[in-house]
Structure formats: structure tokens, C-alpha cells
Amino acid sequence: MNVRALLTERFEAALAAVLGEAVPANVQPAGRPEFGDYQVNGIMPAAKRMRGNPRALAEQVLARVAIDDLVEPPEIAGPGFINLTLKVDFLAETIGSMPLLATTAHPERIVVDYSSPNLAKEMHVGHLRSTIIGDALARLLAALGHTVIRQNHVGDWGTQFGMLLTYLDETGANSAELADLEQFYRAAKARFDDDPAFAARSRETVVRLQQGDAHAREAWQRFIDVSLAHCQAIYDRLGVTLSPADVYAESAYNDALADIVAELDRQGLATASDGATCVFLDEFKGKDGEPLPVIVQKSDGGYLYATTDLAAVRYRSRTLAADRVLYLTDARQALHFRQIFAVARRAGFANPTTRLEHMPFGAMLGTDGRPFRTRAGEVVKLAELLDEAEARALALVAGKNPELPEDERRAVARAVGIGAVKYADLSKNRASDYVFDWNQMLAFEGNTAPYLQYACTRIQSIFRRGEVTPETLPVRPAIDERAERQLAVLLVRFQEIVEQVAEDGCPHLLCGYLYELSTAFMRFYEACPILNADAGVRASRLRLCARTGDTLRLGLGLLGIETVERM
RNA sequence: GCGCCCGUAGCUCAACAGGAUAGAGCAUCGGCCUUCUAAGCCGAGGGUUGAAGGUUCGAGUCCUUCCGGGCGCGCCA
């Protein structure tokens, strides 16, 4: 149940009845404990528009609003806030009988375009954000009952493939030698830069490849297969839900590109400019107000990523029948996607009802605050990052809990290490730049995955020790102590947080919530004896534990983070 | 030059639609393990939210100017 939405609905109905028009109630979680659990902030702006007295309006609204099943008698505070305190009965009933997460009444078909590495190179830290944030959103949207279509738009067709295939051809490299893609890429690049004849052959190879030359295609396929296998190994290790079936590569759009340009031309949107084919839209101006082009075909006849992205929009909107398409890419591509979406709308490649949303994320910075540049030899491969994370976690687990058997210790280290890496990324607002810092990422304290995982194990441990199964517990908890109440109020907020993340695409909100929930649980755990309490209280507190554990596990699950029995 | 994003405690980050006294973690200092896992809990210090104006009952949030950083701007993706 979405408590915030419920309160908003009730207050907006009352506001509409009083004012005769719809105005936002702006219900938010209360900023301070003394203000209750939620506060209504919409009275003051509404009163201002009506040139009325906010407190008087608040009284009128309170006379009309039907909320006594949910909250204690509300208070009007300050210039016109309404403070709401949830009834203990409502908290107990919600925790006792409402599902953790209700599915949406309006399921949609949602394409999530994420990860999308370039297959010319091995995956590195630069691919982390798209992969991890995208996967969390895909899981979360699916859990809300939407139909999620994952699209891994891998780069398998760029000009650098000419260089790689030519080098592959010349060296006759086998699969084992290809295993280190990074090394292979560097060697090919060095050759390309040093040897003009090799560079020329590379460019010819691109042309042959795009013409469908059998030999070139065979070598290309061999290379792609190796590279994709690398990616899949990383996905499996990360616990990312992408599979080979989700790969829909750039090359898949090849056959549509000519038609995209032809269609733009047919509609009079295409303009020849310096030999290239461009689309100019009024809303995009460059310096001195001169129009900014979207180039869809080069002067040599080749197509560009803009063309491919337009074809992808059309495929997703028409063929996949998406209601919504989410693009998880670098913020640097913001202008590109604004242009693509605008052109796609104008040309009718996207149905008018399809929502196209770029969900950008910030740049990768080093600890010095400078942009994290991928100079040759300085990229951190994802595989190495994950090795390091697991090794650090293993050392920590061994120190903290030496009694754990070897195999379990390894499993815990994996969950903790991988979880820490994913959570470090998920817990930060994706719009901000991202400081890549080993120590920060692998510090297992505070708002981190291990803290949340630890809270889960504490709960598990209580049930083990008490030899209690949650099914035997009473449905409704009694909520008497302050720590119990604070925990309960957070527990009933889960639905509203998940729905907000689904809307905004910001998993850090869910992270913040889960962390807050965990700290509330830790305080409850310190303040309220559970197993040693009298039978009635004990059962009630175990019910709160069970609900907290279920919420944490589900929440972490939506983020793609594993939990363990003990650690 | 034009445009987009960013600037919050020493560091890394929050602050949800303009709401009430800007919050966490790390680091620093001080407490708490003979009772459910101390990866924990409790407490202390630490801020002119880059600067200056403006809008209003109220601004970290909106507007203007400036400073500082990042990125983008015709045939790479």
C-alpha cells in the first residue's frame, strides 16, 4: 500500500471540494519527529493563489477530509502546515496483512536499454553504472508488474572492428590469445598507428565487412562471440540479469538504416549539407543561432550512431510496442538523445504515446577529482575490480567470523564484495559525477551493502536462536515502544519508495530508505529485548523482525544485491 | 563563442514538488560487549549550501550576474 499516495488522494479530494478546483496537496514525510509522520505542504500555496488565509483554509480542509481511519486528529502548525501521525492500528494492520509490494494497476511494456558495452574492448569500470543501475531498474519495474524488455545494445559495428579483424587475420590469433581482449586491442591499435599500410587495409576490411564479405563476416563473428562471452561472464559474476537473449546489437539495425534515411527524406526532414545527409530542427541551435544538424548519413554513404539510434527507437516503439523506453547512458550523450527523440517524434518513428526517457549518469572521476580518463593501460577492468572486491571482503569475513566454514566464507565474501561494489554505485544520485575510489567503495561501514546484509543476518539469527518460524507468529504486531513505532512507520513506506524509483529511475532513493530502515532496526534491536521478552511481546517483536527482514531482502533483491544467512 | 550539467562539514554523499532548526557515513574525541552477531549502538565537535543580488510568509532548491570544475557543439560511438 502506498501510504503517501493514499494521504495525497484524500487531501486532494478535500481541497477540491473546498476550493472547487484541483490543487496539489504536496504530502511529504515529516521533516522532524515532532511534526508527526507526514506533513501536508500544499495548503499555503493554495491559499496564496486564492488570496486566503492558510490556517483558515487548513481548517476548512480538515473539516472535509476523511482520514480518521489512517491518522490521529491532525494538527495545524506554523503558517499552515498540517501534521499527520499515523494510527498505531493502521500501522499494525498494514504490517500484518498488506503485501510487501503490490503490483501496479497499470502495467506497461518498458524497454530498458542498459550496459551496452563496446565489444571491441573488455568491460571496464566505465560500464559499471549503466549495467548496475539499469539492472536494478529492470528488476524493480518487473517486480511492480510491468513487462520489462531488456535491450543490451552492444557496440559491434564501429570502425575499430576493421583494425581488430585485420590484426586477427594477420596474427591468426586463436581463441586463447583473444582471451585478453584488452591486450589484443592495444596491440592492434599500436599496429594501426605505426603502419599506414595496415591502417589502409583496416579501412578496407570495414567496407568488406559492411558489404557482407563472407571471410570478414566469419572473423567478425568469431571475435564477437569471444567478446560477448567475456561480457556474459561479468554479468554472471555481478548477478546482473542480462542474458545472451537480451543482446540486440548495433549491427541488428543495419538493414533498417537505409530506410530510416529514405523515410526522413520522404517526409522532407532530410537536408543535404556538405555531401552529408542531415536533419535540422528549429529547437536545436548552435553558435550564432545557426541550426545544429543530426547527421544521419556521411558524405561517403556510411551511417552513424544517430541513424542506428533512430532505427532502435522505431523498433522499440513499433515492433516491441513499448509504452516507455529507458536509456541508461552517460550524461555526455544528453544532447544526442534529445535530438534523436525529437527527430523520432517528428518522423513518427516513435508512437505518440511511447515515452522516451534518457536516464543519464555522471562522469567517472579519479580520487584527484579529475576526469577518469581511459588512457592506454590505465583502465580498470571489471574483472579485476571484482577480484579485488572479493579479496578484501574475504579478508574481512575471515577476521570477523573465523568460525565460518571455508566454502560458506567464500560465498559470503562474494555476496559482500560484489554487493559493496554495486551498492556504492546505486546509492549515489546517478546525475552526479562518480568518484571511483577503492577505499570508499570497499569500506564496509555506514550506508553500504554489508551494513544492510548484516542487518539481515541479525534478523535471521534471532529466528534461528529462538527456533521460531515467522508463519507461527500472530499477524498483527503490538506497537508500544518508541523504537517499535519508528520501525513500523518506515516499514509501511516501502511501497511508496519503490514506486517513486520506478518513476524517477533513481535507485539511490531505495538505498537511502533501506539504510534508514536498517538503522531503525538496529536501534530497535538495541532498545527492545526480543527473545527474552514475555510471550506476547516476544511474538509481536518477532513479527516486526520478520517484516523488516522481508522488506530488506526484497529491497536488496530489487537492487540486485544478495543476502546471506550469516556473516 | 554557444549550450547542458555540477559546486552542500576536512573527505564521500543525502536533503523527494520551494517548507519548519541542512542530515548521514568516514575521519577526530568520549562512552557501551557475563543477555538475541560490536560489520553494531549512544554521545561530542565540525556548515555564511562557491560569491553577490532578486522573487516570497518561507530558498541548498526558482531567476539574474559573476567565480570555479566537467562535458557537448558535421560526417567516432
Report what the structure shows.
Helix 6 (160-171) packs across helix 10 (214-238). The mean pLDDT is 92. Among the domains are: 3-86, Arginyl tRNA synthetase N-terminal domain (Gyrase A, domain 2, 2-Layer Sandwich), CATH 3.30.1360.70; 160-239, no CATH class. It is flat. The two termini are 32 Å apart. Helix content is 54%, strand content 10%. The protein has 567 residues and is α/β, with parallel strands linked by helices. It has 21 helices and 13 strands. It binds one RNA strand of 77 nucleotides through helix 2, strand 8, strand 9, helix 13 and helix 14.
Summarize the structure.
The chain has 21 helices and 13 strands. It has helices at 3-19, 43-50, 54-64, 88-97, 128-143, 160-171, 175-178, 181-194, 196-211, 214-238, 254-266, 305-319, 334-347, 382-400, 406-426, 438-442, 449-466, 482-491, 494-504, 507-527, 535-559, and strands at 27-29, 38-40, 75-77, 81-84, 109-113, 147-151, 270-273, 276-285, 291-297, 324-327, 355-358, 364-365, 434-435. The strands form four sheets. Strands 1-2-4-3 form a four-stranded antiparallel β-sheet, covered by helices on one side. Strands 6-5-10-11 form a four-stranded parallel β-sheet, sandwiched between helices. Strands 7-8-9 form a three-stranded antiparallel β-sheet.
